[in-house]
Recover the amino acids of this structure.
């Protein structure tokens, strides 16, 4: 199979529609990361997504729709706060989980009685979703557990020869996946932190909880279990308080003939570089770190034999999502299955 990379124009969108209607998978740009999409109503199409990614069968998918798509047939009920949140944040990087009416393949939600719905703001995603005019089930367009893709080239690196089309919208501005919000209860509850923050949600809905996964519990949302976002090189993880140990680790790898590299925030990256260490700069704000994290992880795995993470000290807001990905990329979460 030849994998085409194409901008969203009349020809490529017509081809994308043809592929989706045939049950094929199409990768497409969103404002967060690239998605790997298929018809959410067809069991075989959804199975293809799981097979392509090597994705665990109990890890739910998200149904993507365009801004004018009527979701009422898909959901059993919508709390009043959910309508307010939709008007405030959609289209945008917010996925909302509702009680499902079962109108899509049960494989999308892995047998749960809920459905996660997202309305991406990317013009490329909107054009694609309008062209097909049906719910598209889509996880991130990368191999399971690998770093999520934020360029069309990242998708091509993972799936060249296995999918027919990548709709290229350029680099993803957001850089980490959408916030996933449980809207089945009395108050909204964050299942996966992202670019829409708890503070922003609470400012609209009045309050917002954060879900903590219990040991052995089936995932309610993508990104809640398993090691994710991992680069294909050796990794190590330190805090700034143990920087001396991190530097010793770097020097041991270098002495053994390897190519070590640090990954850290702006100030520390500059200081390490000034002392002759190779350091990738994540940025100085939560938004910068979100945008750059996957780019730098992908860059590091191409050249480094050992990537040494130094945990950022910044917290709150978008950093909740950044730290969720940062720690999972280096296998530091305690709730992994």
């Amino acid at each position: 199979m030849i994998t085409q990379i194409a901008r969203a124009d009349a020809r490529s969108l017509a081809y994308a529609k043809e592929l989706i209607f045939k049950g094929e998978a199409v990768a497409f740009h969103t404002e967060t990361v690239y998605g790997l999409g298929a018809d959410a109503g067809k069991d075989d199409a959804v199975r293809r997504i799981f097979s392509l990614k090597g994705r665990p069968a109990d890890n739910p998918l998200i149904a993507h729709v365009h801004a004018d798509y009527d979701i009422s047939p898909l959901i059993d009920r919508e709390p009043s706060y959910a309508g307010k949140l939709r008007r405030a944040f959609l289209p945008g990087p917010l996925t909302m989980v509702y009680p499902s009416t079962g109108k899509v393949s049960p494989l999308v939600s892995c047998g749960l009685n809920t459905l996660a719905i997202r309305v991406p703001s990317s013009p490329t995603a909107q054009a694609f979703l309008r062209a097909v005019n049906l719910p598209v089930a889509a996880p991130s367009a990368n191999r399971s557990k690998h770093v999520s893709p934020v360029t069309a080239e990242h998708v091509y690196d993972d799936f060249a020869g296995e999918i027919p089309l990548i709709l290229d919208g350029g680099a993803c501005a957001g850089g980490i996946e959408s916030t996933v919000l449980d809207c089945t209860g009395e108050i909204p509850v964050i299942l996966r932190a992202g670019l829409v923050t708890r503070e922003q949600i609470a400012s609209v809905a009045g309050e917002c909880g954060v879900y903590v996964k219990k040991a052995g519990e089936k995932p309610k949302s993508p990104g809640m279990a398993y090691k994710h976002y991992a680069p294909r090189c050796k990794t190590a993880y330190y805090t700034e308080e143990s920087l001396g140990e991190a530097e010793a680790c770097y020097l041991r790898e270098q002495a053994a003939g390897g190519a070590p590299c640090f990954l850290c925030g702006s100030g520390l990256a500059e200081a390490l570089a000034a002392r002759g260490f190779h350091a990738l700069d994540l940025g100085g704000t939560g938004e910068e770190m979100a945008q750059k994290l996957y780019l730098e992880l992908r860059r590091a795995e191409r050249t480094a034999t050992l990537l040494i993470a130094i945990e950022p000290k910044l917290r709150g807001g978008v950093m909740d999502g950044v730290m969720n990905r940062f720690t999972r990329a280096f296998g530091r979460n305690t709730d992994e299955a």
Q: What stands out?
A: The chain has ten helices and 15 strands.
